[in-house]
């Protein structure tokens, strides 16, 4: 083509005109091409793209063969352009007060595609668009060729746009952006405790006791001015340190360093400050538990209060009445004592907590017999005579092994229930007191499952009221058998049924080594494993697997919370 142009005198390079093929054909046929390649009728237009080259060919200015050549060469492209020019048209669309110009319509596509274009422009969904065309409203699957829509035509559209989604007035708030007190609620558990060097025994004890809200309430009431005169300075300091640490745990989700508490604990009980090769030694968690409760019981005692002289005893104290019998002489006596935990003794016959508790309530002791004038063996059998709000059980897993000079561990598996009934371990006197509340509890649970409950007659209710008035206290000493009652509140009574709320486990072969962990049930019913500064959520199945039988974590101390009924 370039050679052909040179032959006819066009030496300048030329560019593509707006409609090259059609205009070129018309110009060649009408002889408008000059020796400079300019178009006389359209001087602003130039023809031929720079990249097209043709073989040398001599064509005269008025030769019809040149037009034939062009048609042969460009006819396919010309047909394609002609096709597109007839299938794509532009129209304007009037919607409400807006006019959208030059909206393209592809005549080869169904009208639904056109409606989607309008949706992008107006926000009116296709199903709500009403577009007026020849014959009525434009349907999604109509044939454009039958509608008579022409280029440049103005179409009318009606329809309501979707409401624009507004951004929320309050943006998304992430847990880590909340104040720490609110983070505790959002996370569902309180903070862990840093291990300060073999202090896992202390951390696990604190986490279990921290789960008792009534104990925290008593600690909050404790002040410097409220110190009892009988309490020594170190006991007072340890109580204050416990109160402050519990407050810090309640307000934080980040691990807490119990440095102040640890310092005072070692000052009060120097055995917890023992060193080995310059490192603090591992200690027995049960000993830490017992010593801390004893200290708090002394500090939180209120001699001037007739309602609750000993808050810790009311929460954790178990009153035992024991019968002591000498088989040789027939001597018999009884005694009453208060303890903070029951013992589950482990032997080859013990597979379950109930069996271990029976063994723990029986013991033999050697003492002088006045009748025989010498030492004799006495059998001691104990029964529970008053129940606490929180019942603690210690698995007696450790014994002194003389060969290794350390507390060795019994690894035997002993199962324990999530719900514990201690009715069989109670004295006859206490059982009579538990019968009525247990019946109320059974009735309440029966109603939950839709069971019919026999209503008591008025005579029975009057009899129960008299019995309740006659009981008064759990024992002859005048201690209350029910929880302390605020004015206007209903009286609550024990049922002898307890729910598991905390487990302190030990992993290892010796009490003075290994690792202690606390497992605590939260108020929302979920379990958290407090492995020092790393709290982890757990399920109930994980808790029941802590019964022993291997080198895994096994229960050493378990704590139950009483089910009570309102009367």
From TrEMBL:
EC assignment: 3.4.19.12
Basic and acidic residues bias locations: 452-469
Classification via SUPFAM superfamilies: Cysteine proteinases, Ubiquitin-like
Molecular-function annotations in GO: cysteine-type deubiquitinase activity; proteasome binding
Ubiquitin-like domain: residues covered: 89-158
Domain of life: Eukaryota
Domain USP: 191-563
GO biological process: proteasome-mediated ubiquitin-dependent protein catabolic process; protein deubiquitination; regulation of proteasomal protein catabolic process
Region Disordered, annotated ranges: 452-490
Keywords: Hydrolase, Membrane, Protease, Thiol protease, Transmembrane, Transmembrane helix, Ubl conjugation pathway
Primary role: Recognizes and hydrolyzes the peptide bond at the C-terminal Gly of ubiquitin. Involved in the processing of poly-ubiquitin precursors as well as that of ubiquitinated proteins.
Name of this chain's protein: Ubiquitin carboxyl-terminal hydrolase
Lineage: Eukaryota, Viridiplantae, Streptophyta, Embryophyta, Tracheophyta
């Amino acid at each position: 083509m370039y050679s052909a142009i040179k032959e006819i005198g066009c030496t300048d390079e030329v560019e593509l005109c707006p409609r090259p093929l059609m205009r070129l054909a018309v110009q060649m046929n009408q002889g408008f091409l000059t020796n400079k390649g300019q178009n006389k009728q359209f001087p602003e237009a130039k023809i031929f793209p720079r990249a097209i080259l043709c073989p040398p060919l001599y064509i005269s200015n008025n030769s019809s063969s040149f037009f034939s050549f062009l048609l042969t060469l460009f006819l396919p492209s010309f047909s394609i352009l002609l096709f597109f020019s007839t299938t794509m048209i532009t129209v304007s669309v009037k919607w409400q007060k807006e006019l959208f110009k030059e909206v393209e319509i592809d005549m080869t596509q169904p009208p639904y595609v056109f409606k989607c274009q309008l949706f992008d422009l107006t926000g009116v969904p296709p199903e709500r668009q009403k577009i007026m065309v020849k014959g009525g409203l434009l349907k999604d699957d109509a044939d454009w060729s039958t509608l008579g829509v022409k280029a440049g035509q103005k179409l009318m559209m009606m329809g309501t746009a979707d409401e624009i989604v507004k951004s929320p007035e309050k943006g998304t708030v992430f847990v880590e952006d909340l104040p720490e007190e609110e983070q505790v609620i959002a996370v569902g558990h309180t903070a862990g405790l840093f291990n300060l060097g073999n202090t896992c025994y202390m951390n696990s004890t604190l986490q279990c006791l921290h789960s008792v809200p009534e104990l925290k309430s008593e600690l909050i009431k404790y002040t410097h001015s409220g110190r009892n005169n009988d309490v020594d300075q170190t006991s007072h300091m340890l109580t204050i340190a416990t109160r402050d640490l519990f407050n810090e745990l309640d307000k934080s989700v980040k691990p807490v360093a119990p440095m102040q508490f640890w310092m005072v604990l070692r000052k009060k009980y120097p055995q917890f400050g023992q060193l080995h090769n310059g490192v603090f030694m591992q200690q027995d968690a049960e000993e830490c538990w017992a010593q801390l409760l004893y200290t708090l019981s002394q500090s939180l005692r209120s001699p001037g209060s007739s309602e609750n002289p000993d808050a810790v005893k009311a929460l954790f104290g178990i009153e035992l009445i024991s019968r002591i019998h000498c088989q040789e002489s027939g001597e018999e006596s009884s005694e009453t004592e208060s303890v903070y935990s029951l013992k589950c003794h482990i032997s080859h016959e013990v597979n379950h907590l109930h069996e271990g508790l029976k063994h723990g309530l029986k013991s033999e002791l050697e003492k002088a017999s006045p009748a025989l004038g010498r030492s004799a063996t006495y059998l001691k059998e104990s029964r529970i005579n008053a129940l606490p709000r929180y019942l603690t059980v210690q698995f007696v897993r450790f014994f002194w092994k003389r060969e290794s000079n350390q507390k060795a561990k019994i690894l035997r598996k002993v199962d324990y229930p999530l719900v514990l009934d201690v009715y069989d371990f109670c004295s006859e006197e206490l059982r009579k007191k538990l019968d009525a509340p247990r019946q109320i509890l059974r009735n309440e649970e029966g109603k939950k499952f839709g069971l019919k409950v026999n209503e008591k007659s008025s005579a029975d209710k009057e009899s129960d009221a008299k019995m309740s008035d006659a009981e008064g206290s759990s024992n002859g000493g005048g201690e209350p058998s029910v929880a302390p009652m605020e004015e206007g509140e209903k009286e609550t009574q024990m049922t002898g049924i307890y729910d598991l709320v905390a487990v302190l486990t030990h992993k290892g072969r010796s009490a003075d080594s290994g690792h202690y962990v606390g497992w605590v049930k939260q108020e929302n019913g979920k379990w958290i494993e407090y492995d020092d500064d790393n709290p982890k959520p757990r399920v109930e199945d994980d808790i029941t697997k802590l019964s022993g039988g291997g080198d895994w974590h096994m229960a050493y101390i378990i704590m139950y919370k009483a089910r009570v009924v309102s009367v």
